[in-house]
Amino acid sequence: MSVVQKIDDVPVLMCAPEGEAIGSERDVMDFLGDAMYQGGQWVVIPAGRFDEAFFPLRTGVAGEIIQKFVNYRVGIAVLGDISRYTEDSSALRDFVRECNRGRQAWLLADVEELRERLRG
Fold first, then answer.
1. Which domain holds residue 114?
2. Which strands sit side by side in the sheet containing 3-7, from one edge to the other?
3. Among the listed residues 71, 18, 19, 73, the one whose alpha carbon sits nearest the alpha carbon of residue 42
């Protein structure tokens, strides 16, 4: 179950850590719909919800999913430890760094880091 809560006055749809694996842009449409219906400006998805295909950039899955959020003007934050993927991929490390420089998509360690970003 996903619920909208306020983090530093920003409405954020917090997705449950358990549920179907997210492996395509179709899989995030319910989250986007829920966020928009409930007034959420961001959707927070635990990294563990993503299918393995999300992390190798050559699959294009991460780009497609993030682009879907950009198109709907809803932020996406992927929360959790993805170091096992970034250790093996300089391209993914670069992707994470670029995303985290922006204001639309973040790949962060935890909710505390999300709070800091939403505050800033």
1. 3-119
2. 3-7, 10-14, 42-46, 75-79, 105-108
3. 73
